[in-house]
Amino acid sequence: MNEEVTAFIENLGAVWQIELSKQLREMVHQTIPSVEERIQYKKPHFLKNGHYAAVISPSKDAIAFMIMNTTGMEFPKGFEGPPERKWIKIKEGVSPDYTVLSSLLAQATQTL
User: Fold this and answer.
1) pTM of the predicted structure, to 2 decimals
2) Which positions fall inside the YdhG-like domain (predicted)?
3) Which of 77, 81, 73 has the alpha carbon at shortest distance from 104?
């Protein structure tokens, strides 16, 4: 795991944001064992074979988890974004369905 990404997550303001981001990061690593990670555009980005796969994007009151390469995919209610990338905003006290997120991420990255 990339030390810059670790530091970024550890320096998020709220404890819930830190814990959520750690869990999302772990889910990405379990879903894409060969994933590369880096800080780019001031956010943690996850890549598979040099192609963007996912992004953790914190804001004041939420953590957005973005999945790239989603054209043609069906997403459950709650996701936003254009056809090529979709994200879900997760607020304090909400626990995302990591199984669903992992499945969507695996589907989006299978051709990368």
Assistant:
1) 0.95
2) 21-108
3) 73
What's the pLDDT tens digit per position in 14-59? Answer: 999 999 999 999 999 999 999 999 999 999 999 999 999 999 999 9
Contacts (Cβ under 8 Å, ≥6 apart) of 62: 89, 90, 91
CA pair distance 41, 7, nearest whole angstrom = 15
pLDDT of residue 52: 97
Assigned token pair, 52: 């963007």
Q: How far is CA 80 from CA 2, 3, 34, in A?
A: 28, 30, 27
- CA distances 3 to 7, 22, 92, Å, are 6, 13, 25
Distance between CA 17 and CA 67 in Å, rounded? 18
